[in-house]
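User: My collaborator sent over this chain with a note saying "see what the structure looks like." That's all I know about it. Can you take a look?
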Amino acid sequence: MTVGRRLSQAISEGDGISIIALVRDADSARSAEEQGAEGIALIHAVDGVRDATALPILFRHDAAPEAAGAAGADACLIVIEEHDDEDDLEELHGRARDLGLEVVADVHDEESLEQSLERIDPEIFLLSPRDAEDDEDDLERILDLLPDVPAGKLAIADLQDAGPDEIAALERAGVDAVLVANAKIAHLVAGAPPEV
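Assistant: Without extra context I'll predict from the sequence alone. Here is the result:
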């Protein structure tokens, strides 16, 4: 059982939208926390990341919950469409919960969102712009999905190249957090101290 920090608590507390920084090493995790991020995301295990930050960690890779736990994560990702024709979605969810991990359901359309609600009823959704129509940009795709997230659930926008204007639009729409890959995030965080 992991003694985890709660991603859901970190992104639901306080004013404004939370920033979750996708990091590649312990130094960038430390830097993201100093710049005002409220969560960290990893795509693979990173040595020393758990010691580098007190922020909750999302394992941003559709892997076994045990891999997320071994990476020091507090939350794991389940890409719903990858498990929609199999019986293992509920089993994966159960294993994650048994390990003390929060589950973040990666959804990209109304169907995958509905599937996740029916089968595992997650508290946190990662709204992905993948498979957007040719005439639809990533921000538009995410904002189109948002109304289908039930009240009381948390929504994270997967908009890795988001700038201040996109962050503001997501915040106005009621998104709780945005996952970004920017190395410098201070300019994205509302009320962040100026860089020195």
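A starting point for your reply to your collaborator: The CA atoms of residues 129 and 138 lie 5 Å apart.
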